[in-house]
User: What shape does this take?
Amino acid sequence: MRLNQEQIEQFHTEGWLLLPELFTSEEVDLLRREALAIYSEQRPEVWREKDGAPRTAFAAHTYNEAFRLLGAHPRMIGPVEQLFGERVYMHQYKINAKSAFTGAVWQWHQDYGTWKRDDGMPEPRAMNISVFLDEVMPINGPLMLVPRSHNAGDLKASHDLETTSYPLWTLDEETVTRLVAEGGIVAPTGKAGSMLMFHGNLVHGSAGNITPYPRKIVYLTLNACSNYIRTPTRPEFIAHRDFRPIETVDDDSLVQLARAPRQAAE
Ligand code: SIN
Ligand code: MN
Assistant: This one.
Protein backbone atom coordinates (compact mmCIF):
# COMPACT_ATOMS: atom_id res chain seq x y z
CA MET A 1 0.00 0.00 0.00
CA ARG A 2 1.22 3.51 -0.78
CA LEU A 3 0.28 6.88 0.72
CA ASN A 4 -0.96 9.66 -1.55
CA GLN A 5 0.67 13.10 -1.70
CA GLU A 6 -1.82 14.69 0.69
CA GLN A 7 -1.21 11.96 3.29
CA ILE A 8 2.56 12.32 2.94
CA GLU A 9 2.29 16.09 3.43
CA GLN A 10 0.08 15.70 6.52
CA PHE A 11 2.62 13.28 8.00
CA HIS A 12 5.57 15.58 7.38
CA THR A 13 3.76 18.71 8.64
CA GLU A 14 1.85 17.35 11.61
CA GLY A 15 4.00 14.31 12.47
CA TRP A 16 1.11 11.83 12.39
CA LEU A 17 -1.48 10.27 10.08
CA LEU A 18 -4.71 8.37 10.73
CA LEU A 19 -6.22 6.08 8.11
CA PRO A 20 -9.74 5.20 9.34
CA GLU A 21 -10.85 1.58 9.13
CA LEU A 22 -7.94 0.37 7.05
CA PHE A 23 -8.53 -3.19 8.27
CA THR A 24 -11.94 -4.85 7.95
CA SER A 25 -13.99 -6.05 10.90
CA GLU A 26 -13.26 -9.65 9.86
CA GLU A 27 -9.51 -9.00 10.07
CA VAL A 28 -9.66 -7.05 13.28
CA ASP A 29 -12.03 -9.50 15.02
CA LEU A 30 -9.42 -12.20 14.47
CA LEU A 31 -6.65 -10.01 15.89
CA ARG A 32 -8.76 -9.02 18.90
CA ARG A 33 -9.57 -12.67 19.75
CA GLU A 34 -5.91 -13.63 19.43
CA ALA A 35 -4.83 -10.69 21.62
CA LEU A 36 -7.17 -11.80 24.40
CA ALA A 37 -5.80 -15.36 24.16
CA ILE A 38 -2.25 -14.01 24.46
CA TYR A 39 -3.10 -11.86 27.50
CA SER A 40 -4.48 -14.97 29.26
CA GLU A 41 -1.10 -16.71 28.93
CA GLN A 42 1.58 -16.55 31.59
CA ARG A 43 4.69 -15.77 29.58
CA PRO A 44 7.57 -13.31 30.00
CA GLU A 45 6.45 -11.28 26.98
CA VAL A 46 3.14 -10.36 28.66
CA TRP A 47 3.65 -7.48 31.09
CA ARG A 48 0.99 -6.54 33.60
CA GLU A 49 -0.12 -3.39 35.41
CA LYS A 50 0.68 -3.22 39.09
CA ASP A 51 -2.82 -4.71 39.78
CA GLY A 52 -2.21 -7.69 37.45
CA ALA A 53 -4.29 -6.52 34.44
CA PRO A 54 -2.42 -6.93 31.13
CA ARG A 55 -0.49 -3.82 30.05
CA THR A 56 1.32 -5.00 26.94
CA ALA A 57 2.29 -8.18 25.11
CA PHE A 58 5.67 -7.99 23.38
CA ALA A 59 6.87 -9.79 20.25
CA ALA A 60 3.56 -11.48 19.40
CA HIS A 61 4.71 -11.80 15.79
CA THR A 62 7.17 -14.46 16.99
CA TYR A 63 4.61 -16.78 18.64
CA ASN A 64 1.19 -16.00 17.11
CA GLU A 65 0.26 -16.55 13.47
CA ALA A 66 -2.28 -13.70 13.16
CA PHE A 67 0.17 -11.18 14.59
CA ARG A 68 2.97 -12.61 12.45
CA LEU A 69 0.86 -11.80 9.39
CA LEU A 70 0.04 -8.31 10.68
CA GLY A 71 3.74 -7.70 11.31
CA ALA A 72 4.47 -8.37 7.64
CA HIS A 73 1.30 -6.88 6.23
CA PRO A 74 1.70 -4.67 3.16
CA ARG A 75 -0.79 -2.14 4.57
CA MET A 76 1.61 -1.62 7.52
CA ILE A 77 5.01 -2.03 5.92
CA GLY A 78 4.32 -0.18 2.64
CA PRO A 79 3.68 3.34 4.03
CA VAL A 80 6.72 3.26 6.34
CA GLU A 81 9.09 2.03 3.62
CA GLN A 82 7.69 4.74 1.37
CA LEU A 83 8.38 7.49 3.92
CA PHE A 84 11.89 6.23 4.81
CA GLY A 85 12.80 5.36 1.21
CA GLU A 86 14.33 2.05 2.30
CA ARG A 87 13.44 -1.39 3.62
CA VAL A 88 12.49 -1.78 7.29
CA TYR A 89 12.86 -4.42 9.99
CA MET A 90 10.85 -5.00 13.19
CA HIS A 91 12.45 -3.18 16.10
CA GLN A 92 9.63 -3.73 18.59
CA TYR A 93 6.11 -5.18 18.60
CA LYS A 94 3.55 -4.42 21.33
CA ILE A 95 -0.14 -5.12 21.86
CA ASN A 96 -1.15 -2.53 24.44
CA ALA A 97 -4.24 -3.50 26.42
CA LYS A 98 -5.40 -0.34 28.26
CA SER A 99 -7.96 -2.60 29.97
CA ALA A 100 -11.46 -1.51 30.98
CA PHE A 101 -11.45 0.21 34.39
CA THR A 102 -7.75 -0.51 35.09
CA GLY A 103 -5.66 0.56 32.07
CA ALA A 104 -2.89 2.83 33.34
CA VAL A 105 -1.29 6.01 32.05
CA TRP A 106 1.54 6.31 29.49
CA GLN A 107 3.49 9.39 30.52
CA TRP A 108 4.45 12.10 28.01
CA HIS A 109 7.41 10.91 25.95
CA GLN A 110 9.07 10.62 22.57
CA ASP A 111 9.60 7.05 21.38
CA TYR A 112 13.02 7.85 19.94
CA GLY A 113 14.12 8.97 23.42
CA THR A 114 13.92 5.36 24.61
CA TRP A 115 15.18 3.79 21.38
CA LYS A 116 18.26 6.02 21.47
CA ARG A 117 19.12 5.76 25.15
CA ASP A 118 18.19 2.12 25.80
CA ASP A 119 18.84 0.51 22.41
CA GLY A 120 21.55 2.64 20.79
CA MET A 121 19.47 3.60 17.75
CA PRO A 122 21.51 6.15 15.73
CA GLU A 123 18.71 8.30 14.18
CA PRO A 124 14.94 8.80 14.52
CA ARG A 125 14.42 6.72 11.37
CA ALA A 126 12.02 4.32 13.10
CA MET A 127 8.35 4.84 13.78
CA ASN A 128 5.29 3.34 15.35
CA ILE A 129 2.48 2.25 13.08
CA SER A 130 -0.55 0.99 14.92
CA VAL A 131 -3.92 -0.64 14.43
CA PHE A 132 -6.84 -0.06 16.78
CA LEU A 133 -8.18 -3.44 17.96
CA ASP A 134 -11.12 -1.76 19.76
CA GLU A 135 -12.91 1.47 19.03
CA VAL A 136 -10.73 4.30 20.35
CA MET A 137 -12.95 6.98 21.86
CA PRO A 138 -12.30 10.32 23.59
CA ILE A 139 -13.15 8.60 26.89
CA ASN A 140 -11.19 5.31 26.95
CA GLY A 141 -7.61 6.55 27.11
CA PRO A 142 -6.88 7.48 23.48
CA LEU A 143 -3.34 8.24 22.48
CA MET A 144 -2.76 12.02 22.78
CA LEU A 145 -0.31 13.57 20.32
CA VAL A 146 1.32 17.00 20.26
CA PRO A 147 1.17 17.95 16.56
CA ARG A 148 4.42 19.23 15.01
CA SER A 149 6.48 18.34 18.09
CA HIS A 150 8.50 15.96 15.90
CA ASN A 151 10.41 19.06 14.79
CA ALA A 152 11.68 19.67 18.34
CA GLY A 153 14.47 17.08 18.02
CA ASP A 154 15.55 14.73 20.77
CA LEU A 155 14.37 16.39 24.02
CA LYS A 156 15.86 16.10 27.51
CA ALA A 157 14.19 13.20 29.31
CA SER A 158 14.39 11.37 32.61
CA HIS A 159 14.07 7.66 33.22
CA ASP A 160 10.81 6.93 35.03
CA LEU A 161 10.97 3.49 36.67
CA GLU A 162 8.21 4.17 39.21
CA THR A 163 4.97 5.43 37.69
CA THR A 164 3.97 2.24 35.86
CA SER A 165 5.34 -1.26 35.31
CA TYR A 166 6.98 -0.01 32.10
CA PRO A 167 10.29 1.94 32.31
CA LEU A 168 10.10 5.00 30.07
CA TRP A 169 12.19 8.09 29.28
CA THR A 170 9.65 10.82 30.04
CA LEU A 171 9.46 14.58 29.47
CA ASP A 172 9.07 17.25 32.12
CA GLU A 173 5.96 19.41 32.48
CA GLU A 174 7.70 22.58 31.33
CA THR A 175 8.75 21.01 28.02
CA VAL A 176 5.29 19.55 27.38
CA THR A 177 3.63 22.88 28.26
CA ARG A 178 5.87 24.74 25.80
CA LEU A 179 5.27 22.30 22.94
CA VAL A 180 1.51 22.15 23.58
CA ALA A 181 1.35 25.97 23.52
CA GLU A 182 2.74 25.75 19.97
CA GLY A 183 1.01 22.65 18.60
CA GLY A 184 -1.97 21.86 20.85
CA ILE A 185 -3.03 18.28 21.57
CA VAL A 186 -5.00 15.92 19.34
CA ALA A 187 -6.42 12.53 20.30
CA PRO A 188 -7.16 10.60 17.10
CA THR A 189 -10.19 8.38 17.56
CA GLY A 190 -11.78 5.82 15.30
CA LYS A 191 -13.36 2.45 14.86
CA ALA A 192 -11.43 -0.79 15.32
CA GLY A 193 -9.29 -1.41 12.25
CA SER A 194 -8.14 2.21 11.94
CA MET A 195 -4.40 2.70 11.45
CA LEU A 196 -2.34 5.45 13.10
CA MET A 197 1.28 6.21 12.36
CA PHE A 198 3.46 8.86 13.99
CA HIS A 199 7.02 10.15 13.83
CA GLY A 200 9.55 8.74 16.32
CA ASN A 201 10.09 12.20 17.85
CA LEU A 202 6.40 13.13 18.15
CA VAL A 203 5.52 13.83 21.79
CA HIS A 204 2.67 11.61 22.99
CA GLY A 205 1.09 9.92 25.99
CA SER A 206 -2.26 8.62 27.21
CA ALA A 207 -4.40 8.83 30.34
CA GLY A 208 -5.78 5.89 32.29
CA ASN A 209 -8.95 4.09 31.26
CA ILE A 210 -11.67 4.08 33.91
CA THR A 211 -14.46 3.23 31.45
CA PRO A 212 -15.96 -0.23 30.81
CA TYR A 213 -14.54 -0.02 27.25
CA PRO A 214 -11.14 -1.65 26.65
CA ARG A 215 -8.75 0.13 24.28
CA LYS A 216 -6.40 -2.34 22.69
CA ILE A 217 -3.91 -1.01 20.14
CA VAL A 218 -1.18 -3.00 18.43
CA TYR A 219 2.03 -1.12 17.60
CA LEU A 220 4.69 -2.19 15.15
CA THR A 221 7.92 -0.25 15.55
CA LEU A 222 9.56 -0.36 12.14
CA ASN A 223 13.16 0.75 11.82
CA ALA A 224 15.01 1.59 8.60
CA CYS A 225 17.45 -1.29 8.07
CA SER A 226 20.50 1.01 7.87
CA ASN A 227 19.51 2.45 11.27
CA TYR A 228 19.82 -0.87 13.15
CA ILE A 229 20.41 -0.60 16.88
CA ARG A 230 24.07 -0.53 17.95
CA THR A 231 24.11 -0.96 21.75
CA PRO A 232 20.96 -2.73 22.98
CA THR A 233 20.43 -3.07 26.73
CA ARG A 234 16.88 -4.43 26.77
CA PRO A 235 15.92 -8.09 26.29
CA GLU A 236 15.64 -9.36 22.74
CA PHE A 237 11.83 -9.70 22.98
CA ILE A 238 11.62 -5.93 23.62
CA ALA A 239 14.32 -4.63 21.24
CA HIS A 240 14.75 -7.15 18.44
CA ARG A 241 18.14 -8.08 16.98
CA ASP A 242 16.93 -9.55 13.68
CA PHE A 243 17.83 -6.70 11.32
CA ARG A 244 16.75 -8.45 8.11
CA PRO A 245 14.16 -6.55 6.01
CA ILE A 246 10.58 -7.70 6.43
CA GLU A 247 9.23 -9.76 3.52
CA THR A 248 5.59 -8.81 3.17
CA VAL A 249 2.73 -11.33 3.01
CA ASP A 250 -0.29 -11.22 0.70
CA ASP A 251 -2.82 -8.48 1.38
CA ASP A 252 -5.60 -11.05 1.99
CA SER A 253 -3.57 -13.25 4.34
CA LEU A 254 -5.43 -12.22 7.51
CA VAL A 255 -8.77 -12.86 5.83
CA GLN A 256 -7.57 -16.30 4.77
CA LEU A 257 -6.53 -17.07 8.33
CA ALA A 258 -9.81 -15.72 9.75
CA ARG A 259 -11.68 -18.11 7.46
CA ALA A 260 -9.65 -21.08 8.66
CA PRO A 261 -10.30 -20.75 12.41
CA ARG A 262 -9.31 -24.30 13.36
CA GLN A 263 -5.83 -23.91 11.90
CA ALA A 264 -5.51 -20.52 13.67
CA ALA A 265 -6.18 -22.13 17.04
CA GLU A 266 -3.64 -24.91 16.54
C1 SIN B 1 3.26 4.09 23.66
O1 SIN B 1 3.48 5.26 23.74
O2 SIN B 1 4.16 3.32 23.29
C2 SIN B 1 1.91 3.53 23.96
C3 SIN B 1 0.92 4.48 24.45
C4 SIN B 1 -0.46 3.92 24.52
O3 SIN B 1 -0.72 2.79 24.05
O4 SIN B 1 -1.36 4.61 25.01
MN1 MN C 1 5.38 5.71 22.77
